[in-house]
Fold:
Amino acid sequence: MATITEKTKEEVKEVVYSFFAEECEVDIEQINENTSIIKDLDGDSLMFLELIEIFKKKYNLDIELKVIGKYAVKHPVSTIGQLIEMQLLIIEHENRLLDIEP
Structure:
């Protein structure tokens, strides 16, 4: 579990933007918070799993995929901005992700 700082937010944004630019073969300048992962970038759920693995290693996270899956069913992600927000929640709450729901 980590405290989210402005530096963490910037790092996550940079990793997500760079990842999708490379994987989807688009110019990073074409990506913004409102970019649709599926419609605009032709992305898929496997990319999301790859990103989770990147962040698990980068931040030494202890989180199970089933926890993320349960959270994602209730809070689907379709844009880059939503994905960044979810990644920040994963970093901050790890396996307690489901406990933050009202």
